[in-house]
Structures are given as C-alpha cells and as structure tokens.
Design a protein that fits this description.
Elements lengths: L6 E6 L3 H12 L4 E8 L4 H8 L3 E5 L7 H9 L4 E6 L4 H9 L4 E4 L4 H12 L3 E4 L14 H11 L4 H8 L3 H15 L4 H5 L9 E4 L10
Helix pairs in contact: 6-7, 6-8, 7-8
Amino acid sequence: MADSATITVALGGFDDLLARGLRGLIEDDPLLELVAEDVAVAQLTVVLRARRPRVAILDATRLRSPADVRNLTTSHPATHLMLLAERPSSVECAQLLAFGASACLAKTTQSRDVLNAIHLASRGLQLTPRGGQGIAPGSGLLTAREADVLAGLQQRRSNAQIAADLHISIETVRTHARHIYRKLGVASRRELLAPAALSGQHFAPHSSAAASQPRA
C-alpha cells in the first residue's frame, strides 16, 4: 500500500522495448509505484477508476483522437496524463495540453527528463515546450465547442461548412477559431494545418512554482 509520499503511476500500452524502459525507470525510483501497466485504450477508464493513479503515461499514437485526452481528464481529474508521441510538433503538443494533458514528450526524450516530468506532473504542473507560449492550466483549455470547431478546421472544412455542421453562425465559427489559435499558440489556419516539427524535446513546467531539478 502506497503512503502519501508515493506517486502511483499507470502505464498504457507501448511497444515492448519502450514499455520495458518505462517500467524499469519507475521501479528504480523509490518514490514511484507502478499500479498498472500495458493498459489498452478501451480499458483506461476502468483502470483509472479502480487504481486511481496520480500519473498515467499513455502512447499518444494509440488514442483515437485528442478528444480522448479531454474525456479522460474530465472523468478522472485526480490523474495527470503524460503523452508520449513519435515526433510531436509544437501545435500537436499544444492541442494535447489544451485538452488537459500535463505533458507531451517525444518517445526519444531522455530517461532523466521523463522521470522529472512524472514528478512535476504529479504535482499538478503542466509542462510546455521551452520557447512556446505555454498554456495556463484551467484557463487555456479548449471548450467542448472549440474542440468541435478544431476538428472541422483539421479536416480542412470551410467556416461555412463547419457552421452548417455545428448549427452555429459563421461569425461564431470565426470567434471560436480565434480563441483556438490563441490557445494553441498559432497565428492562422495555415499555421495550424502545417505545423513545424519541434527541433528538440525540452520541457519546462508552466507554473509559478519552482521546478525540481532533473534527477541524475
């Protein structure tokens, strides 16, 4: 049974090599306790409800859509989600953070940085790429309607088509789009649809609280 200082962690499904590396990383840290592993996307809700981990590390490529992140964070607010992806762009990371994830890291991120991210996420800190605009936890999250508009934008539908799909006015679509661009740190639809890949995975906590130093 974990004491109050122990950080409980659940692992989603990952390729075998990465799964073993994450498992070893967690088991080697005396402050971390692995309470579930190799959790399929379809079983996430059941496992998070039963185990109540403080941090869940998931493979972003196995999620059906970023909306899964929003649904999980809404249903399980006590669990902080860390997403690992192949080569996430700044826009892709911003979208996952806006849906409530605590961190978005490349799968090639160094072990010490992954470990540091787990500890920071467990404290409720949201990690953002260095140099990015960052997203204020609670205030920068996309609303459900903004998420619907974002889906239409990413499908390259026109404002008129999105308006018809959602039964709202074109001006309302434009307003939601402006809010989406601001929250995701992009200037236009073109930038949203053609994101540049991050040059490297260096993350910083988006909080006024001091960050703990990476572990050796």
